[in-house]
Amino acid sequence: MKLVFRGHDDRYAVEQSLLAFFPEERPVYQEPEPGEDNWARVDLHQGPVYATAVTEIAHGGRLGRGTSRALLREVTDEYERERLRQKAVKLSFFKAARSITGLTPAWGALTGIRPGKLAARLLEQGKTPAQVSRILGDTYYVSPSRRRLAVETAQEGLRAKADLRPEDISLYIGIPFCPTRCAYCSFVSQSVEKSLGLMEPYLEVLCREITDAAQMVRETGLRIKSFYMGGGTPTTLSARQMDRLLTHLNRSFDLSGCVEYCIEAGRPDTITREKLQVLLDHGADRISVNPQSLEDEVLRAIGRRHTARDIEDTMALAASMGFPHVNMDLIAGLPWEGLDSFLQSFDDVYRMEPDQLQLGFLKVLKGSYMASQAGAYGLRYRMTPPYEVLSTRWLSYGDVIRLKAMEEMVEVYYNSGQFSNTLKLLEQEYPSPSELFLDLAAYYEDHGFAGLSHSRMARYEILYGFIKEREERKTGHGQTGEAASDTCLSAFRDRLMEDLYLRENAKSRPSFAMDQGPFKDRIREFFQTEEQERRWLPAYKDHDSRQMANMAHLEAMEDGSFLLFDYKERDPLWKNARTLRFTYEETCAGTERGEYERIKEGQSRTGGRHPGAAGRGAWHRVP
What we know:
Elements: E1 2-6, H1 11-21, E2 38-46, E3 50-59, E4 62-71, H2 78-101, H3 115-124, H4 129-138, H5 144-162, E5 168-175, E6 177-178, E7 190-191, H6 192-220, E8 223-231, H7 239-252, E9 260-266, H8 273-281, E10 286-292, H9 296-301, H10 308-320, E11 325-332, H11 339-350, E12 356-361, H12 369-372, H13 374-377, E13 380-381, E14 389-391, H14 397-415, H15 420-427, H16 433-446, H17 456-475, H18 486-503, H19 520-533, H20 545-551, E15 553-556, E16 562-570, E17 577-586, H21 593-605, E18 617-622
Parallel strand pairs: 1-2, 5-8, 6-7, 8-9, 9-10, 10-11, 11-12
Antiparallel strand pairs: 2-3, 3-4, 13-14, 15-16, 16-17, 17-18
Helix pairs in contact: 1-2, 3-5, 4-5, 6-7, 7-8, 14-16, 15-18, 17-18, 19-20
């Protein structure tokens, strides 16, 4: 497509939208011939108040026009003014292209940038998550599901940012080699079969670059917060090569402040005990194992030279060697894999208990073998980024929609790590993990929750509503309006409250939470005792009981125990609080035993689910 610019030269901004809407076109910067039908004219006019961009596109016998403007008045920073001008240019092209094609990419006009970055900036400006979601939709045409993802990602990013110092950075090393090229891959990487002779020279140059980069980090006073080695497939390297590389890395950089040391191990056919031992010896605490499928026929179709059994053996090996964290991922829409087969792969991988289980969808990328076989495999896919599959010979469009909904539930409730205790209990209610997440996705759809942005607290309310409705169906109480089995629901409420407070000392509470009022005297007594004895909260030695009660949290649980959340002692990865569980033994000081029993009975009659306070007692730690 021939592109003509006037008043600007924002090539990158326009080219990203061009590729999104017209993936077969390439930019040619010259005037179109008279009567030519494949061009775009993008003009930018700047005045004292506004920068106005106007785009006209001629393509396929149609003419489209888009206009966008940015307010420049009172913006004195030239960098910010330039950013606003580029935004106007990109939005004008987006609107013109949208009017011609009738398409709206899932990420709207944000194609080519990190959408979470924009959402984070808006949150930092003081806007609420709902306001950010509205801006993403109204201004940038982002779909509801992507708006939700952007906002949640931004919120998590800002929480992580709060723990960072200005000098903290992350370190990445890329190993561009694979044992074979996967059928869906279009990355710039080389199979070892064709490039074995390049591996040693590459490592030599890489080690020199590590030396130079480490010197720069030292001189600028930077600190490595996390390290990730990806590719390609890093474990294509031999154990000896990996040891040499990581030894040089660890000696060059100060990694004493590194909270995560992750290696993308990738394919099971490249993973051996010797290589895993090298990773452990050098401090790796997370690896990624990427099976994509647990069906041997599917693995052969995508060019993998390993079997499903190899994946299972690799995970068992990693577990036996004590790897703290393992990620895994699956791809839906691969050749020869239907819905039942994919769900079986999901169930098998889920039961391996990876920390993160990413559900991806086949992307039919130009230049990949998969793209050349699209006709043979019956692949229907989006013609705009991210080129995701819509259906195959084996997977219907309806199946893809169900898996998309399931993917969101896995992201929210499993991969977030914020519902782990509740999920462990809920899994026992289902014959398979996939049935759980499909059932949860159906609940979202049936109750109008799908496609909306939800706060963290709302996610807990929704999950409890799902559990309660399921329990009512199971016990047959749903039709009569009777309460579900409170014994069962009590256990779930305890798990949900534990999950809720693990991540943060929440100031608001869900509607299902047990009233803590009857236990305020006991809770106050705990912190007063801790102020005197300093047994359980060593990091609070400079704080009195009131301060500790505000900084930590003690929750009375429905099972009769008390759970202490210590927010000064968190695990470095998930940022979950250290927890201690206690029971309370009433000594009934100053209270007759019969009176204490009447107090307990009175609380039971008034709806309390847990005995309240009656005098002072003794706290016992539950192992």
